[in-house]
Amino acid sequence: MRRIVLLVALSLLLAPISPAVAVSNDGPRYDVRLGADASGVTWTGRERVTFTNTSAGTLSEVYLRLWGNAWDGCNSSPVRVSHFAGGTPGTASVACTALPVALTQPVAPGKQISIAFDLSITAPDRAEKFGRSGDYSFFGNALPVLAIHDQAGWHLEPDVGIGESYYAAAADFAVRLDHPAAVQVPATGTESGGVITAKQVRDFAWAAGPFEHSEVTSPGGVKVRTWWTSVVTAGAVATARTGAVAAVDDFGRRFGTYPYGELDLVLNDKWAAFSGMEYPGFVLLVAPPYGESAAVHEVAHQWWYGIVGNNEYADPWLDESFATYSADLFAGDAKPGCWPGSVVTSITNSMAYWKAHPTSYGTYVYTYGACMLHDLDRLIGGPAMATLLKTYALTHWYGIATPAAFKQAAQSATAIDLTSFWSGHSIG
Ligand SMILES: [Zn+2]
Asked: What distance in Å separates the CA atoms of residue 225 and residue 220, rounded to the nearest whole number?
């Protein structure tokens, strides 16, 4: 995502990734059925979350992340849950985005359990990823998902308001979205027989409204569906679509074939605080003026954050620097000489730091982070860099990558000792 406004902070515990709420092939499963009101602004129904305790100890509670409540804290809570089965909700914390649920039956290691709850989601009246713009409603980070638990405990990072906060395991979703025929509903996943299925994705997003839409299939076989609000021009639609179609194939060749079959682009003329926001198989874009460049950047996030997961709050560079660098690769721009030489801080800071230093965030995490990768490319050579990225992606496919894992992968790709490279590029 590329965001313009900033906000919060909290300390973050870093630890080896061995989540109790499973990552990788044993991830959670979400079964959801929601029905819309006449305009698609409010959705109500029920959600069931099934997961396996992959930790060594008994699990007696889980946390749901209600990210949709972050904006107004506990004042409005546009995402509401009630009537729990399998657990008892406690008091929400972290601006009402973290809800503990005490499990009715503590779950032993290796065992599977489900919790279920009624759900009501109303898009707030603001032009945001979870919000409304005219007759159109958008549900990004609106569906409750499980927090990750590992040796550091529960990951309950705050929403800093610039998109980089989320951390979730790849999961399977089966979602039924019942809605009036006049309301179009682009969404993560693929729909068949009224059920939208999305496998090995970290989130599920959708939108609702009287969208116009088109569908093309990329030469590589990815179905790209473009949806746009009435204020978006035909030229802007074509520009974004062309960029996304080319990018999804190009990145597939570079990093591993796009696995989801379908990609939905949702275009509006503006959002309050971003020009593009990525979700699995689904991206929100401003078009115009950003058009192709935003589309390519957000498509790159399908790999860097989506397929190859990371803790966005702890390590925003692992997705934003990589998405920016990937877009440069797509454009054939090697950015010679772009590393500034001396820097006052590290590109690897967490969002706690960038929240406190918002004017440096874009320069360091996007621009300088991509410059570092270009310099690494120049140092180890194009073929080694290409092998590194593909190997790194496949190693962490549907899993979680860490800074240490990337550094190790890079070192494994070259006979050159990278110690001075890392220190020369502000990476500890
Ligand atoms: Zn981004």
From this structure: 15
